[in-house]
Design brief:
Elements: E1 3-9, H1 14-28, H2 43-51, H3 54-61, E2 65-70, H4 82-102, E3 107-111, H5 125-134, E4 139-142, H6 162-171, E5 175-177, H7 189-207, H8 210-213, E6 219-221, H9 232-241, H10 247-251, E7 255-258, H11 264-273, E8 279-280, H12 303-309, H13 315-329, H14 333-347
Parallel strand pairs: 1-2, 2-3, 3-4, 4-5, 5-6, 6-7, 7-8
Helix pairs in contact: 5-6, 11-12
The structure holds zinc ion.
């Protein structure tokens, strides 16, 4: 089985954008603020939005289940207030939930949180609990920089974040460190801000002692771990200089990297440097890099091709990356897979 642990709903009907526009207009003129029931998206529209995109690629590439979350660039935690952010997270998460109900064989849910710059993430706990306990979600995206490129909040290892981590540990749900769009013109969102954030998060974890306080917390660093695997010697050396434990001892019981790296040579490097117990298959398909690679004639985000082609992986390692690591990192997948199997049996 192939579990893709990183996919976003990038193809939502335009009605969702209109709802968002009304929300933001409502910040200026409260009369324009929409109600939840103003968002009219039918099941048919949901089906249409994924049939020729994510589902088509799952079929073509032979992947099975995608852990699916709202569009990352759309989280936009830098806009709005508590009311707007809470409503926006709810609306986006509800669409993911409906897709997991329409396609129980194809999608498992991961949620967006109603984060805001400068606000304790404890405000996110009700939505996190709703998504996990009521909607059956298995993961969550946590934005380390809700200011959208200005890094105004404390590092991820700061006690500012602890209420959220306590809840994640209690719910046994892992977090993916995932920024949203950039409102700093210096940082292109997916080309710079995302990769910066992945790298920054790992360095924060090296400097801090988060897993001493939360030994069972699991953190996924997406986009292949940013610059970390390529510069692994730098981070190993910095850990030594800073008198921190080795990366293996300090991070590798809790930190996992995904395979959203869009080049065979990058996946070769990732799989040579990072232990195979710490890698999760992912594609982030129909995301930042949607096109065909003119050098290969294949989609850049068809990452299964690179993992299948990685020179250092044997079948046992591939099985870890495709399936068994995900089941360890996302324990709530077990229930999703049981439901999936029942659904597929009923279809047969
Ligand atoms: Zn993503």
């Amino acid at each position: 089985m192939i579990i893709d642990c990183h996919g976003h709903y990038t193809t939502a009907p335009k009605e969702l954008d209109h709802f968002r526009a009304r929300q933001l207009a409502g910040m200026v003129n409260p009369a324009l603020h929409p109600r939840l029931e103003d968002l009219l998206i039918t099941d048919e529209m949901l089906r249409e939005s994924v049939e020729r995109a994510q589902l088509k690629f799952q079929r073509e590439r032979g992947t099975d289940l995608t852990i699916f979350s709202p569009k990352a660039a759309g989280m936009q935690h830098h806009y709005g207030d508590e009311r707007v952010s809470a409503q926006w997270a709810r609306v986006c998460n509800d669409l993911i939930h409906r897709l997991t109900q329409l396609y129980p064989a194809n999608f498992a849910g991961a949620c967006q949180l109603p984060q805001l710059p400068g606000v304790s993430p404890s405000n996110c706990i009700p939505e996190l609990e709703r998504c996990v306990n009521e909607l059956g979600f298995v993961g969550v995206n946590v934005n380390p920089d809700p200011s959208g490129g200005w890094w105004k909040d404390a590092p991820l290892t700061d006690r500012h974040w602890y209420p959220l981590y306590e809840k994640l540990v209690e719910l046994d749900v892992p977090m993916m460190v995932h920024v949203s769009s950039s409102c700093n013109a210096c940082f292109h969102a997916t080309g710079a801000h995302y990769i910066n954030a992945d790298t920054t998060a790992v360095m924060q974890l090296i400097q801090g002692d988060l897993f001493r306080d939360f030994p069972t917390l699991r953190v996924i660093i997406p986009h292949g771990g940013g610059a970390v695997p390529y510069h692994f010697g730098r981070y190993r050396g910095l850990a030594l200089n800073l008198k921190r434990p080795s990366l293996e001892a300090h991070l590798f019981s809790n930190v996992f990297f995904d395979t959203c790296v869009y080049d065979q040579r990058g996946i070769d490097l990732l799989t040579e440097v990072i232990p195979h117990d710490n890698l999760l298959f992912a594609s982030e398909m129909v995301g930042a890099v949607k096109g065909l690679d003119p050098n290969t004639g294949h989609y850049f985000d068809d990452t299964r091709r690179y993992v299948d082609g990685a020179r250092v992986l044997d079948e046992a390692s591939r099985k870890k990356i495709y399936e068994s690591n995900a089941l360890k990192v996302f324990p709530r997948l077990k229930a999703v897979l049981a439901r999936r199997e029942a659904f597929l049996e009923a279809q047969a």
